[in-house]
Design a protein that fits this description.
- The protein is an alpha+beta fold.
- The chain has one domain: Nuclear Transport Factor 2, Chain: A.
- It is 38% helix and 31% strand.
- It is built from five helices and four strands.
- Strand 2 and strand 3 form a beta hairpin.
- The chain is extended and about 75 Å long.
């Protein structure tokens, strides 16, 4: 009985380990220098729409880190003040957000999009009625090695906390 179990285990291991040499051979055929083939460039309009959608979801989820990860802090003027505003907004208020892209202007390494933005804010520690904001935002993007990043938002006071 013990021999049958050992034989079955050895057979199972042999079947599981058999594909490994073939997989290793496939890796060996990659280009020299460890370089992979260049990734297919994503459509800029789709990439920018994805960033806008992600910011909308991060605002509703109160994800400060998620929102700020889409911003190029080195090129965003007065970034520390905006960072503080987003921190307070996500910490103190509950949000419902709706963004609708109206217009895109896309160049090789930069883009600008206009958004009809609506936001409903409610203080987390209060039973007061929600405040509604509607405004058209202009968001400037630059293409970086990490994808499209926001370099400016106008007007920024749309994101001020209650």
């Amino acid at each position: 009985m013990k021999h049958a179990r050992l034989l079955a285990l050895a057979l199972l291991l042999g079947v599981l380990l058999l594909p490994l040499p073939a997989a290793a051979a496939g890796r060996a055929r990659q280009p020299r220098g460890g370089q992979e083939a260049p990734a297919r460039r994503e459509d800029p309009e789709r990439a920018i729409s994805n960033v806008i959608r992600q910011i909308q979801m991060d605002l509703e989820a109160a994800s400060r880190r998620g929102i700020l990860s889409n911003i190029d802090s080195a090129k965003f003027q007065d970034y520390p003040r905006f960072e503080d505003m987003i921190d307070r907004l996500t910490r103190e208020d509950a949000l419902r957000v709706y963004f609708r892209q109206v217009n895109n202007s896309i160049k090789e390494t930069s883009a600008q999009t206009m958004i009809d933005a609506e936001m409903e804010l409610t203080r987390k520690d209060s039973a007061s009625p929600p405040e509604r904001r509607r405004q058209q935002l202009v968001i400037d993007f630059e293409r970086t090695s990490r994808g499209w990043k926001i370099v400016n938002i106008t007007p920024r006071d749309f994101f001020r906390p209650l």
